[in-house]
Amino acid sequence: MPEKNDGTQINPRWADALLSAQILVAGAGLIGGIRLRAGTGPVRDRWLEAVHALFDAQYGRGLPWIRIPASSATGRLTGGIDIAATLAAGRPVHENGILARADGGFIILGMAERLADASAAIIGRALDDGVATGSSGRVQPARFSLIALDESVDDEEDLPSALADRLTLDLCLDGLSIHDALTDSDLARRLAQPLPSAGDCASAMRAVTVPDEVREAAAAVSMALPGSPVRRALDLIRVARILAVLEHGTDVKPDHLATAVRLCLGMNMAPQSEQPQPAETPESAEGDDQSPPPSEPPAGEDQPDTEVSQPDPSEEDMLVAAAQASRAVLAELDRPDRSMAAKLARTGKSGGIKTGSRRGRPAGIVSRPPYAEARPDVVSTLRAAIPWQRLRNPDFALRADGSAPPLRILPSDFRYIRFRHRTESTAIFAVDASGSTAMERLAEAKGAIELLLGDCYVRRDQVALISFRGVSAETLLEPTRSLVRAKRSLTGLPGGGPTPLAGAIRRSLEIAGMVQRRGQSPLIVYLTDGSGNIALDGKADRVRAGEDAQMLARHGAALGYRSILIDISRRPRESTRELARSMQAQYCPLPIVSASAVNAIVSAELSKGAG
Amino acid sequence: MAKPYPFSAIVGQEEMKDALLMAAVEPSLGGVLVFGDRGTGKSTAVRALAELVPELAGTRGCRYNCDPAHPADPCPVCATAPKSARIKSRAPMVDLPLGATEDRVCGALDIEKALVSGERAFEPGLLAKAHRGFLYVDEVNLLEDHLVDLLLDVAASGVNVVEREGLSVRHPARFVLVGSGNPEEGELRPQLLDRFGLSVDVSSPRDIASRIEVLKRRDAYEQDAEAFHAKWAKDEQRLAARIVAGRKAVGSVALSDRLMTMMAHLCMQLGVDGLRGELTLMRAARAKAALSRRKEATLEDVLAVAPMALRHRLRRDPLDEAGSKTRVDRAISEVAGEPVGHA
């Protein structure tokens, strides 16, 4: 067992983190990379240092170790013509992209959850093929490993799935203390041990045999995961092979797979229990014959209903159970109301507010590129350059033969066309599911959503649904354009109970904020009778509930979100109208709710456009 | 770059494989749309397909992938120096990345050349590169609409026309368009859906046995790609021969009037707008027959291709719960008078 000099045990999670680092370095070029869930801080820095040190020890110094921000333009990633250098030299000067420069090394991608999906697609393709194709068509080798620093704090943002799919390892450092990482005094000693078969892990991996039952177990684990991805099963076997190589083994044992499951599915994230626990350690060299019992996944500890507390490595049931306790599933159990985003892969739309559009109508000339890949507009560039020619060519007037000297154009002359097009809208439905007419209302709201989605292709609109009843509002449908997804999540909605109107307004404003951060314009549609009776803190207090609702309504108006309040009570009341006024919403009494009427109101408002 | 995973070694996914082979045999089908989960072998299949089609004759240095017999007008290599060295190369397999700009796709004024040497030159784009090969668009449902429009236009006409920045260029761009995506992340507009020839749905294998088979083969390929290719070489050759034979034969496959009538009935029953459904059905049935080395298309051919040729052309009814595949199958059994399933 690994022990520090003072005799205390190393936190098994930190041991896992170091094992991941060893796998990452040993399998450089064979496994895509790692998703590192951690906030900035000394623990993460320490881990990155450890990977760097291992990498240097293995392959010698000087190999690429490039850190890039998530906002890197796709052109910078793949490379192309360096315009400034080209103009200075008078001949095309090619510049290698980041991916090609990282060949043979590591790319550390900061704030990976903010990566645009186009960049994610390019990096993912390079991870698949090992080459990067520049914008001028040059193909260059780009075999690198990726460390994606995922700093997302909640489900609002997620790694683009084009990238997340290709990252083999998943490590979470949140919750590890500095003490665990920094007081680990023999880290250096352990790093000094050379990894087995330095530089040629691939051939060693080839020599390792994989027994059929391990393969079956890997397949079973992947079946149990949400979406049952085949790729994950391949990842597991690959990592299990590397683990076997690290231990100088000749075949993959079930406990290798158990460790692989832990490292690939991000299961080292649950807080540790008090009693010291035997953990799989990176000390394969010293722990070969006294090989530790295959540790159960730590995540399983607080899951009494899964059977992981009985470690029996040969049982594939155990692995299935372990997988079921994996991060995604845990998250789902813990937070039923927020699991939607975790469950469904996103496509990385979290690019912040869009400043430039690539299409639409030309709306003026600007001197800075409106978006990363913008190309200069030739005519306006020339127009900007011409007045300076006399200054730049002192012999402009002196040419006797009347021939014009070549134009001198500097990068500062470049002009770009700015485009403007109508932004996409997202209609957020907040539906009152309380009381006796709940089912009917919900059914009509569902109908309205499906009708809207049915014809939203052209307008490129999205729809979200919040239902509120009991003590809280629940997001039933994250903003989506997909009818398939909407249908799936709209089946079987419960109704009845009191009315937490204030909570619903708050949730709607949250989603509206999220929508706006994605560069779309939100439209909130409330379907309610306006008589909230649950306050924000969940207490049944009609007066407080009314005040809370009014306050949030004014808050929403101050934020400037467009909203519609559809009053569905049989007899519209002044208080509801008052609420609509506070939120500066369009007020539509609709005593008999029907899907087509709601659809008509919302469509009219959406097609008014947000500019 | 390593040789891609062999096509014949792909486990299951028969419908997708069939559709891709048909598109390779009959390029006028109008492309294939593959919708389904991630990691189900979509990209693998498309990349593997390019290995199966026979090598193309070309000219060294040509950036338009010209057929030496019919060089493109704007191609500086083939048009001006027709005696350049001939080379043979694999059919191009071009990946259209999500972030690609219109300039990059259809080609544009070579800005660097224009600014540095004042020369007005055309820089061919991805469409020229894909000429006589395949153009693969992963996540086609996330691509900007105007780009999808452009792709489908060129795929249908076989010619890329660029009229911009003082350039006027036409060059041939005949390719098989393959789009893929996950419908949960967004859908394609019906107008665009309709313009794809075939549409198939794929999903991860649900039974453990075929999953293990996938793992075994993939693992073997990763550990020793060459040995794996050697093992599958015979199957690959057989399949390649089928494609070559199919390409030759597809033009002469007979289709009886009775079958034509049946196709028309089927399309009417399903309320498919326009004639594109029938045309695709006809071409696909011919391609299917040609692939099986038959001189005449049979009822089985039509029944096998009908779901993939029609599934995406149905009028959408947001309140209809039944999946489109069920609706096609239902209509087929009504028209053909017998229950069907994919062969």
Helicity level of chain A:
25-40%
**Strand coverage percent of chain A:** 5-15%
Q: Label the structural class of chain A.
A: alpha/beta
Mind summarizing the main beta sheet of chain B?
5 strands, parallel
The CATH superfamily of the largest domain in chain A appears as P-loop containing nucleotide triphosphate hydrolases
> Helical content of chain B, roughly?
40-55%
Placed side by side, the strands forming the largest sheet of chain B appear as: 4-7-10-1-11
Q: What percent of residues of chain B are in strands?
A: 5-15%
CATH topology of the largest domain in chain B: Rossmann fold
The computed structural class of chain B is: alpha/beta
Tell me which CATH architecture of the largest domain in chain A applies here: 3-Layer(aba) Sandwich
CA-CA gap between termini of chain B: 35 Å
Largest sheet of chain A: 6 strands, mixed
Which chain pair shows the most residues in contact? Answer: A-B, 74 and 60 residues
CATH class of the largest domain in chain B: Alpha Beta
Indicate the radius of gyration of chain A in whole angstroms.
29 Å
Low-confidence stretches of chain A: 1-7, 269-315, 324-355
Shape of chain A: flat
Biggest sheet strand order of chain A reads: 14-13-12-15-16-17
CATH topology of the largest domain in chain A: Rossmann fold
How many strands in all of chain A?
17
Domain VWFA (chain A): 426-553
Region (Disordered) (chain A): 271-316, 344-369
InterPro entries (chain A): ChlI/MoxR_AAA_lid (IPR041628), P-loop_NTPase (IPR027417), VWF_A (IPR002035), vWFA_dom_sf (IPR036465)
Organism (chain A): Hoeflea alexandrii
Task: Briefly characterize the structure.
The complex is a heterodimer of chains A (611) and B (343). Chain A is α/β, with parallel strands linked by helices.
Description:
Chain A: Pfam families: AAA_lid_2, VWA_2. Chain A: This is Magnesium chelatase ATPase subunit D. The complex is a heterodimer of chains A (611) and B (343). Chain A is α/β, with parallel strands linked by helices and 611 residues long. Chain A folds into 4 domains: 1-195, 3-Layer(aba) Sandwich (Rossmann fold), CATH 3.40.50; 198-272 and 313-345, Orthogonal Bundle (Helicase, Ruva Protein, domain 3), CATH 1.10.8.80; 364-420, no CATH class; 425-608, 3-Layer(aba) Sandwich (Rossmann fold), CATH 3.40.50. In chain A, 40% of the residues lie in helices and 15% in strands. Chain A contains 24 helices and 17 strands. In chain A, the strands form 5 sheets. Chain A has a 6-stranded mixed β-sheet with strand order 14-13-12-15-16-17, sandwiched between helices. In chain A, strand 16, helix 23 and strand 17 form a beta-alpha-beta unit. Chain A is flat, with a radius of gyration of 29 Å. The relative contact order of chain A is 0.08. With 343 residues, chain B is an alpha/beta fold. Chain B has 2 domains: 7-55 and 90-202, P-loop containing nucleotide triphosphate hydrolases (Rossmann fold); 251-336, Helicase, Ruva Protein, domain 3, CATH 1.10.8.80. Chain B is built from 14 helices and 11 strands. The longest helix of chain B is centred in the C-terminal third of the chain and has 25 residues, at 225-249. The radius of gyration of chain B is 21 Å and the shape is globular. Chains A and B meet through helix 4, helix 6, helix 11, helix 12 and helix 19 of A and strand 5, helix 5 and helix 9 of B.
